[in-house]
Write a structure and sequence with these properties.
Layout (H helix, E strand, L loop, with lengths): L1 H5 L6 H13 L12 H26 L11 H12 L6 H17 L7 H13 L3 H13 L17 H12 L22 E5 L3 H4 L5 H4 L5 E5 H7 L4 H12 L2 H4 L15 H23 L4
Antiparallel strand pairs: 1-2
The structure holds a DNA duplex (20 and 20 nucleotides).
DNA sequence: AACTCAACTGCCGGTAATCT
DNA sequence: AGATTACCGGCAGTTGAGTT
């Protein structure tokens, strides 16, 4: 647990125990633990530690996820490590690309985030254990969600804690999104109050209050990623005021990189609903491109 | 006064254990 | 055997703290 924390993945002890049981028994529930021998547990412990190390390294280096805050569930790390283990940590370029794709889609759609998460984890472990391959766990995603592409409608009513929002961060970040004033690339690990990442309401809450319900105000289509200082300097200014000031200095790029439409007719409170719909379309398109690219061998 | 964020609380949707 | 209950991770709304 300490080793993982040092690597930036501070996980609850329960996850490590679940990881151990998964490696020993091929499933994640604790009901049979009493029948395991000390030898089985010791061997499993060594194996599951390697699995966790693989998961962390894969996330950091292959997926560019450097924090569990960007994961919709820590269970993903168990599956990821187990997949590596089952392949003997010998992955072809295709394996690696498929595994990255699986991880990102499972994370974005919330594979383990809708109740009965252990049942779903067991499904994946079982398929991996039977050497059905990464193809098989991609297939379970298709069974669970239908199509793996993202429709704009799925994004509606989601807030900052949604898994889609985490993937938005990854996609925008990969496409070079930067703070609108400092031009510092967005990152979860910036130090200091000035640069520490905040979730900025493009239409500030203050000007929407009374006109729209909180769920509409806090929709991820109204949220963007900028540093704390820039966010505070914008405060409750209406977008039709502050957008032009930023565009004068930085051009349209800061907005394009975060899928934010800049047409002036969309920037009034009256057009807010339309603004959300427009941005949702742009975000869905960007996420789909991001996920598709993740499956390409590079 | 405006913002974010963390903590708290109750709910959801399944399985597994327990009760009748 | 069938019904009920406990459990669990994650989600979402609320509230108060902290910052500028």
């Amino acid at each position: 647990q300490e080793e993982c924390t040092e690597a930036g993945f501070d996980l609850e002890l329960g996850i490590h125990v679940k990881n151990l049981i998964s490696f020993v028994t091929g499933q994640s529930r604790f009901k049979t633990v009493g029948r395991l021998t000390i030898e089985q547990l010791q061997k499993g412990w060594d194996e599951c530690k390697d699995g966790m190390r693989f998961a962390i390294n894969f996330l950091k280096s292959n997926v560019r996820i450097d924090s569990p805050a960007l994961l919709s569930s820590p269970f993903l790390m168990i599956s990821l490590g187990y997949a590596g283990h089952q392949l003997g940590y010998k992955l072809s370029p295709q394996h690696a690309a498929d595994l990255r794709y699986w991880l990102l889609v499972a994370n974005t759609k919330g594979r383990y985030s809708r109740g009965s998460s252990e049942t779903l984890l067991d499904q994946d472990l079982n398929r991996l254990r039977n050497d059905n391959g990464i193809e098989a766990i991609i297939e379970t995603l298709r069974l669970q969600f239908g199509k793996l592409e993202i429709e704009p409608g799925e994004l509606e009513g989601r807030n900052a804690r949604s898994a889609y929002f985490k993937t938005m961060f990854l996609a925008f970040s990969q496409d070079g999104a930067k703070d609108w004033v400092s031009n510092l690339a967005i990152s979860l690990s910036h130090k200091g109050k000035q640069h520490h990442l905040q979730f900025h309401h493009i239409f500030p809450r203050a000007i929407l209050k009374g006109h729209f319900r909180p769920v509409v105000i806090n929709d991820i289509a109204n949220l963007s990623f900028i540093g704390g200082k820039t966010n505070r300097s914008i405060s409750s200014k209406s977008p039709h005021i502050y957008f032009s000031q930023i565009i004068d200095k930085q051009g349209e790029k800061p907005f394009i990189s975060q899928c934010i439409p800049t047409a002036t007719e969309l920037l009034t409170v009256e057009a807010y609903t339309q603004f959300l719909a427009e941005r949702r379309n742009l975000i869905a398109e960007r996420l789909n491109n991001f996920l598709e690219d993740s499956r390409k061998i590079n």
